[in-house]
Amino acid sequence: QGARHPPPFHQSAAMSPAMAATRTVRTSLSRMALASWQRHFCQGKALPARRLINPTYLVHFGNVVALAALSQSDMLNLRCLLVVSTTCGISYNLLQPTPLISPAMWGCAFLSLHTYMIVMLLREREQLTLSTDEELVYEKAFFPFGFTPRHFLDLLESAGSRWCSWQAGQYALKKGDPMTEVQYLFEGEVEVLSFTGDLLHKAKPGKGGWLGEFFDPNQALDHWDLPRKSPVSFRCCSERCQTLALNRSALHRALKGAPTLEQAATRAAVSDVWGKVHKLVPDMRRSAYRSMLEVALIDGEVDPAERSMLLQYRQRHKIDEGVHAEVLRDLGWTVEDFAAGRKGASDEDHDADGE
C-alpha cells in the first residue's frame, strides 16, 4: 500500500518512569524559582541596587540634569550633561519590577550618539599646529567665517592642497586651461585678464583673494566633475606670488557634505564676491582713465581742453598722482611731458640745459 510515516516519538515508545520524573522535577523547580523571583520583586527585595537606590530618585535627578543641559550654550557641556541624564533614564528603566528593555535600548542608542558627538567636539578643539603659510591662509580666508583649525586641516587633506609660488610674469592659470583647482592668493599681486587679454582688475590677499569662485551652494554635488575651462587668465604682477591650490571637485564635495562647513563656505564666498566688487570699481575707474589718456595722447600733444577734462575726471573719481604717473609711464609719457603738453618735451629741456 506504500510507505508509511513513522509515528511520533510519544506514540512509538512509552516514556520511561525516570525520564518522566526528571521532567516533572525540572518543571516544578522552574515554577518555584519564577514564583520566588516575582514575590521578591513585589516586596522590593529583588536586587541590591533596587534596595539601595530608589528608581524614582534617578528619574528626578536625570530630568534636573536634562534641564541644566538645555540651558548650556556650549555644545560640549550640553552633550556631557545629556550623557548623565540619559544614563539615569536607562537605570530607571532597568530597575523597574519588570525591566523596561525597549526604552533602555533606545536610551543606549541616544547615549552612543551623545558620546560620538563629544568625541567629535573634542577632536575639533584639539590643539593643532599650523605652519606659517597655513596660519596665514587660515586667518585670512577661513577663520573669519567659522572654520575651525580642524575643519581647515581636514579640507587641506581632502582637497589635495598644493602650495604654489609664481614669479613676475608667470601665469597661475591661463585662459582655456582646465579649471581643476581653485587658488587663494596669500602673498603678492595678480592681474586678472579677460579673454581678450585686457586687465579686468588686480587681486590681492584678503577679501577677493580667491582666484576664481571659491564655493557656490546652489551648484550640484557633481558640478565640478565635468571638464570646464577658464574664461580668464591670472598673471603674477609682483616680484613673487604665493597661492594655495585646492581641487575644486573634492573641495565642493567636502563643503557640501557637512551643513556647518557649507554655511561657513557660503559666508566666505559672499565676502569674497564683495571684496572683488569693492576692488573692481577702482580698477574700472583706472581703466577708464587710461582709455581717456590714450585718446588724449594719441597725437603726441595735450591741449588745454583735454587737460581740463582729465583733471576733472581725476578729481571726481579720486585718482591720485601715483596712478596718474603710472598710467603715463605705461603709455610712454612722463609727468613732465604731460605738464609741458608735448611728448618728449622733458628730453628737449634736458638737451637745452646741457648745451
From TrEMBL:
It comes from the Eukaryota. It comes from Alexandrium monilatum. This is Cyclic nucleotide-binding domain-containing protein. One of its GO terms (molecular function) is cAMP binding. One of its GO terms (biological process) is cell adhesion. Residues 166-255 form the Cyclic nucleotide-binding domain. Keywords: Cell adhesion, Cell junction, Cell membrane, Developmental protein, Glycoprotein, Membrane, Tight junction, Transmembrane, Transmembrane helix. The keyword Repeat does not apply. It is found in: Cell junction, Tight junction; Lateral cell membrane; Membrane. Pfam families: POPDC1-3. Belongs to the popeye family. InterPro entries: cNMP-bd_dom (IPR000595), cNMP-bd_dom_sf (IPR018490), POPDC1-3 (IPR006916), POPDC1-3_dom (IPR055272), RmlC-like_jellyroll (IPR014710), TerB-like (IPR029024). One of its GO terms (cellular component) is bicellular tight junction. It is a multi-pass membrane protein. The keyword Cell membrane applies. Its main location: other.
